[in-house]
Amino acid sequence: MQKITPFLWFDGNAEEAANYYVSIFKNGKITGVSRFGATDAIMTVSFEIEGQKFIALNGGPHYQFTPAFSLFVDCEDQAEIDRLWSALSAAGAEDKCGWLRDKYGVSWQIIPSCFGELMQKPGAVQAMLSMRKLDIEALRRAGADPGDAA
């Protein structure tokens, strides 16, 4: 059982956001809906993506998301980066260094699994700082030791 579950505050569109997220990830599903009392108004939507449980709350306009909290996605390859970047940044905003904000304002980091290894190479950090969506091959080229080309 998961001990800690991210609880995301939305302004009346929690169900829409949860459905959006589960449609983007291969392993996503809605796991529950709770309503305000006896009304049809949705209070929370429980959902799961890639084994991670979340709860989305229709909390009203009082709070907004900031990049101070982000969801980090460990991507297997460039194809997964490209697919998730395209889907999550649609109607949102691209930020630098593999970060984006989706159309609901939630910040995501779309990062390759080999990121830590790549960042150990000279030149790779500087290349990453100039990117929005991360490009694995460009990071490899930027971090290559000139002696490796021989």
Mean pLDDT reading: 94
What order do the strands of the largest sheet run in, or round the barrel if closed?
Answer: 1-4-3-2
Number of domains in the coordinates? 2
Rg calculated over all Cα atoms: 18 Å
CATH class of the largest domain: Alpha Beta
CATH topology of the largest domain: 2,3-Dihydroxybiphenyl 1,2-Dioxygenase, domain 1
Number of strands: 8
CATH architecture of the largest domain: Roll
Could you tell me how far the N terminus lies from the C terminus, measured between alpha carbons in angstroms?
51 Å
- Determine the fraction of residues in helical runs and give it as a percent range: 25-40%
Which regions contain 5 or more consecutive residues with pLDDT less than 50?
Answer: none
Biggest sheet descriptor: 4 strands, mixed
Beta-strand percent range: 25-35%
Q: What's the tally of helices? A: 5
What is the string of SSEs from the N terminus onward? EHEEEEHEEEHHH
Give an account of the 3D structure.
The protein has 5 helices and 8 strands; from the N terminus they run E-H-E-E-E-E-H-E-E-E-H-H-H. The chain has 150 residues and is of the alpha/beta class. It has 2 domains: 52 residues, 2-Layer Sandwich (Signal recognition particle alu RNA binding heterodimer, srp9/1), CATH 3.30.720; 79 residues, 2,3-Dihydroxybiphenyl 1,2-Dioxygenase, domain 1 (Roll), CATH 3.10.180. The strands form 2 sheets. A 4-stranded mixed β-sheet has the order 1-4-3-2, with helices on one face. The radius of gyration is 18 Å and the shape is elongated. 22% of the residues are buried. The model has no long low-confidence stretch (mean pLDDT 94).
